[in-house]
Design a protein that fits this description.
Blueprint lengths: L7 E5 L7 H12 L5 E5 L10 H5 L8 H4 L3 H12 L5 H11 L3 H12 L4 H9 L3 H13 L3 H10 L7 H7 L5 H11 L3 E2 L8 E2 L1 H12 L3 H17 L3 H10 L3 H19 L4 H5 L4 H6 L1 H12 L7 H9 L6 H17 L3 H8 L11 H17 L3 H8 L12 H18 L2 H19 L4 H16 L3 H8 L3 H7 L2 H17 L3 H17 L3 H16 L4 H16 L7 H21 L3 H17 L3 H17 L5 H14 L4 H5 L1 H12 L19 H12 L6 H10 L5 H8 L3 H14 L5 H10 L8
Parallel strand pairs: 1-2
Antiparallel strand pairs: 3-4
Helix pairs in contact: 4-5, 4-6, 5-7, 7-8, 13-14, 14-15, 15-18, 18-19, 18-20, 19-20, 20-21, 20-22, 21-22, 22-23, 22-24, 23-24, 24-25, 24-26, 25-26, 26-27, 26-28, 26-29, 27-29, 29-30, 29-31, 30-31, 31-32, 31-33, 32-33, 33-34, 34-35, 35-36, 40-42, 41-42
């Protein structure tokens, strides 16, 4: 090989089947490979070649299952390239989860779907346990297995995570472990893992095998469940052991396992099966086992059933031996429920008595308390101080805080940065937190979905709509039911803004209606008000005054209801939405004199809360309105643009109003001097699109006139008097006279008719006028 003049690639597949001598020869070859030879080796399982030194020195690359498996973005791209727009991102994400990124599985699924009438219906059927892919592929795969292999897989399929020793316990045969190893090499039944002996059945095969398990005699099922419970309990896996013991009919043993494990599992991993256990546990068992009662309260507080948490806390505090530490923990539980209930004032009332020197010793609870202190500070409008509070929890090297609790801290920090509009810093915190949460909890877990909502908002502000859509794909339903209100609002709002940018206004309105419906279903009126305010923003972009007035009126009616919360924190947050809605309604009606006041009031609240992104948006809108009023808006717009650049916000002005976005782009592109007023859509009279394009083309011919001068010129061409022009522009008559005087000078005219005639000759106004 070294003496040839050819570049050669040697590919060897399934090298794990080679005898030891051949593997040794391969290792020798890799250490002494000629420069014109490239070697590619593939194995279905870990294969030791003693080439770690080559990897360390960068002479060899190792590609494992995580690199070979498609990620969500790759799946979405593949689905859209094969099926086009007939399958949306949500359906593509569901297909990705079903196939677990398995490239061959995705290709098979797409082949089946492309031949069907309704690809989305096929994905739904696949998720429900049917569909052509399961019937045609999985059925054939299982039918071609050796009967003994199929029997083995059926009898171990009810366990989520498999270990060879556990399988040998369930199917005590001499060749059980060897059979598992062979099937792992020869079939796609098992999902490949990076390391360790634990195995997992692929979701497509697992569901089919579990249906076969359900057909086994009941006594055999119970025996297998009992043996799995014992094996798992002996190794400290008590939560899984409890579930299998209960399925085996060993209720008392299951309750004991659950009591010993569920609280620790909830605190360590952020989730447990406690909510499912509530339907299994008799009430007297809960009262007899206070730790289960505490776990139930924690689990319910951070779910859509948060109202039930209060009843469990009351049962906890009714016990005679209750100390301050338990009372403080009860306050943490109830304050968490208040967050999910969008009741910031109740949250503050529960947290504040324990704000300083909480009587807690558990480092996990201390970190939870620090997270809550940070959130409490954020509600007061101090995001920087909130980050400091979050970091003030005592740290212990001997008792480290679980990853999940730490990620809640990252969530709070990311939210504070997003609150300020500091999207660049938010991304550095949220991206690793989301990756860890998806690995530990699953992509569609509530906490991962909430992190994704924050990161999607960041991606949108950074002008990455495809990434924002992928982050929220197949997650809005999770947020709707189990997200804290702020993440529900961010998720639906981000997707609505993406839809507007894509020209799908109907889809955006549908999403905002869904946000309103979620607010009604969860009895969260702030979400309803935010939905109506965002709808007003959207209609103001198209200058629909009646629709905007109706939406603002609906917000007023909601807030006038005495049944609405009256707390200071809640009212301040919703007053912000109300002022925004009224400001957009005035913009839609082009009532420039009335538009500025609500925008100023909204900006005052935004600055009190230090909501930096919203403050920048309102600066831009105020500049827009002032320009329409004939005032000098240049300094205000400069400040807004400079702040947006510093914060990394790329979408803020387009989201506020398309005319404002066009004006800023002209400023950034240097096509017009800001000091004299920018030409183009910002100053053009609001007319039908075709006429606006004609005016835009005419204004490009000369940048000599300011926006207000061009508007006065067009009204002069309609033979309006100074008084009529002042009324039409909603400015003073003296302001109009000043603009007319400037027109005389710039167009070298002595009369109003000469001004109009010269403007037509220069192409500044249409000849038809």
């Amino acid at each position: 090989m070294a003496q040839t003049a050819l570049d050669v690639v040697l590919i060897a597949d399934e090298i794990d089947r080679l005898p030891p001598d051949s593997l040794e020869a391969l290792a020798y070859l890799l250490h002494n490979v000629p420069p014109n030879l490239r070697v590619v080796l593939a194995a279905r399982s870990d294969c030791r070649l003693d080439i770690d030194d080559l990897v360390d020195y960068g002479q060899c690359s190792v590609i494992g299952p995580s690199q070979l498996r498609f990620d969500l973005a790759e799946t979405i791209e593949l689905v859209h390239s094969r099926l086009g727009a007939s399958v949306d991102h949500d359906a593509a994400a569901r297909l990705h989860d079903l196939a677990e990124g398995w490239p061959l599985g995705l290709q098979l699924a797409l082949t089946v779907m492309s031949g069907g009438i309704d690809p989305k219906a096929e994905i739904a059927a696949l998720g429900a346990g049917g569909g052509l892919l399961r019937d045609q592929f999985v059925g054939v795969l299982l039918a071609n297995l050796d009967p003994d292999d199929l029997a083995l897989l059926t009898r171990v399929s009810f366990v989520d995570a498999l270990h060879p020793a556990l399988c040998a316990e369930l199917v005590p045969r001499d060749d059980t472990i060897d059979r598992l190893a062979r099937m792992g090499r020869d079939t796609p039944v098992f999902v490949a893992t990076e390391q360790g002996e634990w195995l997992r059945l692929h979701a497509l095969a697992r569901d089919a095998l579990r249906r076969r398990f359900a057909d086994l005699p009941h006594a055999e099922q119970a025996d297998l469940q009992s043996r799995a419970a014992r094996w798992l309990a002996e190794r400290g896996l008590l939560e899984d052991a409890a579930r299998h013991a209960f399925a085996a009919g060993e209720a008392e043993i299951a309750y004991g396992y659950a009591e010993r494990s569920l609280y620790e599992s909830l605190m360590a991993r952020g989730h447990s099966s406690m909510v499912a256990w509530l339907d299994r546990l008799p009430p007297e068992e809960l009262d007899r086992r206070p730790r289960l009662l505490l776990t139930a309260a924690w689990s319910l507080a951070v779910s859509e059933r948060h109202e039930e948490a209060g009843r469990f806390v009351a049962r906890i505090l009714a016990h005679p031996e209750v100390d301050d530490a338990l009372r403080c923990e009860a306050a943490l539980i109830l304050s968490g429920a208040a967050v999910f209930a969008d009741d910031p004032d109740r949250f503050a009332a529960l947290h504040d008595p324990w704000a300083t020197a909480p009587p807690l010793s558990d480092p996990v609870l201390l970190q939870v308390h620090a997270n809550r202190s940070a959130f409490r500070t954020l509600l007061e409008g101090e995001p920087g101080l909130a980050r400091r509070r979050q970091q003030q929890a005592p740290r212990s090297a001997s008792a480290p805080v679980p990853h999940h609790i730490g990620r809640w801290g990252d969530f709070i920090v990311g939210l504070t940065y997003l609150w300020e509009g500091q999207v660049l810093q938010a991304e550095t915190v949220l991206r690793p937190a989301l990756a860890g949460a998806e690995t530990d909890l699953g992509r569609r877990s509530p906490f991962a979905s909430m992190l994704a909502a924050l990161l999607a908002a960041v991606a949108w502000e950074r002008a990455r709509p495809a990434e924002a859509t992928a982050l929220l794909a197949d997650r809005l339903d999770v947020l709707e039911h189990a997200g804290i209100p702020e993440t529900v609002l961010l998720g639906f709002r981000t997707m609505a803004r993406v839809a507007v940018a894509e020209g799908a206004e109907h889809r955006a309105l549908e999403l905002l209606d869904a946000l309103h419906a979620a607010g009604l279903a969860r009895r969260l009126p702030r979400l309803c008000i935010a939905s109506l305010a965002d709808q007003a923003r959207m209609h103001a972009r198209r200058f629909r005054p009646e629709t905007c007035r109706e939406l603002a009126g609906r917000i007023d009616a909601i807030l006038a209801d005495p049944a609405m919360p009256q707390g200071r924190l809640w009212r301040r947050s919703v007053e912000l939405h109300r002022e925004l809605a009224h400001g957009h309604a005035a913009i839609a009606a082009q009532e420039w004199r009335h538009a500025l006041d609500p925008l100023v009031r909204a900006d005052t609240i935004a600055q009190q809360l230090k909501q930096g992104r919203l403050h920048i948006e309102l600066l831009g809108l105020r500049a827009y309105v002032r320009d329409r009023r004939g005032e000098n808006a240049a300094p205000l717009l400069r400040e807004a643009v400079d702040l947006a650049r510093a914060y990394g916000l790329l979408r803020v002005f387009d989201d506020a109003h398309p005319a404002l976005g066009d004006w800023v782009r002209q400023l950034e592109g240097g096509t017009a001097p800001l000091a004299g007023g920018a030409p183009g859509p910002l100053a053009a009279p609001m007319r039908p699109a075709r006429e606006r394009e004609a005016v835009r083309a005419a204004s490009t011919a000369s940048a000599a006139l300011t926006p207000k001068e061009r508007e006065v010129l067009e009204l002069l061409a309609r033979n309006l008097s100074n008084k009529e022009i002042a009324r039409a522009m909603q400015v003073g008559e003296e302001t109009v006279k000043w603009h007319v005087k400037n027109l005389f000078a710039k167009l070298d005219a002595g009369t109003r008719k000469q001004v109009v005639a010269r403007a037509r000759i220069l192409g500044l106004i249409e000849q038809a006028e």
